[in-house]
TrEMBL record:
Its EC number is 3.5.1.88. Binds 1 Fe(2+) ion. The gene is def. Keywords: Hydrolase, Iron, Metal-binding, Protein biosynthesis. This is Peptide deformylase. One of its GO terms (molecular function) is peptide deformylase activity. It holds the Pfam family Pep_deformylase. Belongs to the polypeptide deformylase family. The active site is at E151. Fe cation binds at C108, H150, H154. The keyword Metal-binding applies. Removes the formyl group from the N-terminal Met of newly synthesized proteins. Requires at least a dipeptide for an efficient rate of reaction. N-terminal L-methionine is a prerequisite for activity but the enzyme has broad specificity at other positions. It is an enzyme of class 3 (hydrolase).
């Protein structure tokens, strides 16, 4: 089922989310709905707080980014052998970050029509449970690491615009107000 995505200004987007306590049919249905919602909105990631659930849960699809990139972008943004991945992250915890950073443009389904450069670590190591509650510790690089960090931030109440300079935030203030007031069109259902 496609769910409404919360718009910038909704207080749920600023909540430090709770851990997911158990695997259940309700959780499995929520994960399925998140995938459907993200795909319908042509996103590459979606976190539970974006659909009103204050849970440490997010989904990531960097395959779509790899497939839509040209050869130069693939070489610049993916390590050799990485063609992207699709994964569900539950109770994730970033346990390592590279010293190497990179700037790249980011956007957000909760903040439509705003795209800005954000500096993030090139690679991260993360512990998480998959949708079957199986534990993993993996290292991701480039675009995949960026999407994971963006969605992970959502589960901690941090938006990508929180990582922008105060001047840049001031410059996009009018657009942010339009989003908060429901005056931005999207192809997907949004909720204030």
């Amino acid at each position: 089922m496609k769910l409404a995505i919360l718009a910038y200004g909704n207080n749920t987007l600023k909540v430090d989310c709770d851990t997911v306590e158990s695997n259940s049919d309700d959780l499995s249905k929520l994960i399925d709905n998140m995938w459907e919602t993200m795909e319908h909105a042509y996103g590459c990631g979606l976190a539970a707080p974006q659909i009103g659930e204050t849970k440490q849960l997010f989904v990531v699809d960097s395959i779509v980014m790899y497939e839509n990139a040209d050869e130069d972008e693939r070489k610049a943004n993916f390590v050799e052998g990485d063609t992207g991945m699709r994964e569900t992250f539950i109770n994730a915890r970033i346990i390592g970050k590279s010293d190497e950073t990179w700037d790249e443009i980011e956007g957000c389904l909760s903040i439509p029509d705003i795209f800005k450069r954000v500096t993030r670590p090139w690679s991260i190591t993360i512990e998480y449970l998959d949708r079957d509650f199986q534990p993993h510790t993996k290292t991701f690089h480039g675009t995949t690491a960026r999407i994971i960090q963006h969605e992970y931030d959502h589960t901690r109440g941090v938006l990508f615009i929180d990582r922008l300079s105060s001047l840049t935030r001031k410059l996009i203030g009018t657009k942010l107000n339009k989003i908060m007031n429901g005056k931005v069109f999207t192809d997907y259902k949004m909720k204030q």
